[in-house]
């Protein structure tokens, strides 16, 4: 379909696609096997100015929005979800600064982030605080002109590799969720270390580690927003970033679909290519339709966010929910269309199916997305009455 992209948006899409095909596809299987962090590819993305897509021009970026970022993420995901997760998580970690940072904080961090010189990570999840963000145990205590942070974050994308971390910690436990605050912490700060690198089912090129804070002292000025705004920062960040996860779903589904079609045209059974069989055609037809519907929703929500709409929680959740459920179904069906071949590591759909699963889990499980949508509907219909 023609989504009436501007000439500049088409250029962004084509550039990301070229990088995906020339730099990512040849090494994706090796990166999956070794779990090596894709620094070489990150440098290419930096040289291509893609890290600066969503950063305002005044801070060295290109001044674009969620739609342009989603377009780029989709194309990278079509090749390798592990690589695209590294890129997308950088945006996730940057949004707290972009949305709530002071001008001084933005001047300090955003130019290097836009240039791809400093990678970013977002630290919210803990052992007892995933879907229940209110279970956060990490604390930040103000002592003079410093905050002292103690606690552990779990399953943090880009952990250990990023230079800048935006994290959520409790500053006043008596206030419940309103007692959380957001901070920026730099790698190398005394008392800030990393746990083991996780050995994952999929997105293996992406680094996932613990963040460990042991009397980690940071300047008072490192708070993002004000004390007590932590969960507002976190939720608004996720509202802005979830279209990126939806775009990942569109991309990996598109990649798996293309592999399935190519295989079905070549594989001959009963004297005919299997793509001529109605059973296979119906599977491919459903896959193609679902992907197009996902892309339409993700692009529409990204445009809605870029319009400056204040409350986008429901629509953002919808884009993530629908596109990632589609990604899981399409990658699974791609393996089915390819039969035994699809199950072999020799073909990329095996990896795509493993990778796709995380999309239904991170940045809020799809069950949580349904909760967000349901609660928004209750509010909407209560107002109408």
Q: What is the average per-residue confidence, as pLDDT, rounded to a whole number?
A: 97
Beta percentage is 15-25%
Number of strands: 10
How many domains would you count in the coordinates? 3
N- to C-terminal distance: 39 Å
Largest sheet: 4 strands, mixed
CATH superfamily of the largest domain: Butyryl-CoA Dehydrogenase, subunit A, domain 3
CATH topology of the largest domain: Butyryl-CoA Dehydrogenase, subunit A, domain 3
Looking across the biggest beta sheet, what order are the strands in?
A: 1-4-5-8
Low-confidence stretches: none
CATH architecture heading of the largest domain:
Up-down Bundle
Question: Mind telling me the CATH class of the largest domain?
Answer: Mainly Alpha
From the alpha carbons, calculate the radius of gyration and give it in angstroms.
21 Å
Order of SSEs, N→C?
Answer: HHHHHHEEEEEEEEHEEHHHH
Helix content: 40-55%
The chain-level structural class is alpha+beta
Shape: globular
Number of helices: 11
Give a verbal description of the structure.
- With about 375 residues, this protein is an alpha+beta fold.
- It folds into 3 domains: about 5-120, Acyl-CoA dehydrogenase/oxidase, N-terminal domain (Butyryl-Coa Dehydrogenase, subunit A, domain 1, Orthogonal Bundle), CATH 1.10.540; about 120-230, Butyryl-CoA Dehydrogenase, subunit A, domain 2 (Beta Barrel), CATH 2.40.110; about 230-385, Butyryl-CoA Dehydrogenase, subunit A, domain 3.
- The chain has 11 helices and 10 strands.
- A hairpin with a 2-residue loop joins strand 2 (about 140-145) and strand 3.
- Helix 9 runs antiparallel to helix 10 (about 350-355).
- The radius of gyration is 21 Å and the shape is globular.
């Amino acid at each position: 379909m023609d989504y009436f992209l501007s000439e500049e948006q088409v250029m962004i899409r084509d550039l990301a696609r070229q990088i995906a095909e020339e730099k990512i596809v040849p090494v994706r299987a090796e990166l999956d096997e070794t779990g090596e962090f894709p620094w070489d590819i990150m440098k290419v993305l930096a040289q291509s100015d893609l890290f600066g897509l969503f950063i305002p021009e005044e801070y060295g970026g290109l001044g674009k929005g969620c739609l342009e970022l989603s377009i780029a993420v989709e194309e990278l995901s079509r090749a390798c979800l592990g690589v695209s997760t590294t890129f997308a998580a950088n945006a996730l970690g940057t949004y707290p600064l972009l949305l709530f940072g002071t001008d001084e904080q933005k001047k300090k961090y955003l130019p290097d982030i836009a240039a791809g010189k400093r990678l970013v990570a977002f630290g919210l999840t803990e052992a007892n605080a995933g879907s229940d963000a209110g279970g956060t145990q990490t604390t930040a205590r103000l002592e003079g002109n410093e905050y002292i942070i103690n606690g552990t974050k779990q399953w943090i994308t880009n952990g250990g590799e990023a230079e800048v971390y935006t994290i959520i910690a409790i500053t006043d436990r008596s206030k419940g969720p309103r007692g959380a605050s957001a901070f920026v912490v730099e790698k190398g700060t005394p008392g800030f270390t990393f746990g083991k690198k996780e050995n994952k089912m999929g997105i293996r090129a992406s680094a996932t580690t613990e963040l460990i804070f042991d009397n980690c002292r940071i300047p008072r000025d490192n708070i993002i927003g004000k004390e007590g705004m932590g969960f507002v920062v976190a939720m608004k960040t996720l509202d802005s970033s979830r279209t990126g996860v939806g775009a990942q779903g569109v991309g990996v589904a598109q990649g798996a679909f293309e592999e399935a079609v190519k295989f079905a045209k070549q594989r001959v059974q009963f004297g005919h290519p299997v793509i001529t069989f109605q059973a296979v055609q119906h599977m491919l037809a459903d896959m193609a339709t679902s992907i197009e519907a996902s892309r339409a929703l993700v692009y529409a929500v990204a445009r809605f966010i870029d319009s400056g709409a204040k409350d986008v929680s429901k629509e953002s959740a919808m884009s993530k929910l629908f596109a990632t459920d589609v990604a899981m179904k399409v990658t699974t069906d791609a393996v089915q269309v390819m039969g035994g071949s699809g199950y072999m590591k020799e073909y990329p759909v095996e990896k795509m199916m493993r990778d796709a699963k995380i999309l239904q889990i991170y940045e809020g499980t799809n069950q949580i997305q349904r909760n967000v949508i349901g609660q928004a509907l209750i509010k909407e219909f209560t107002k109408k009455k």
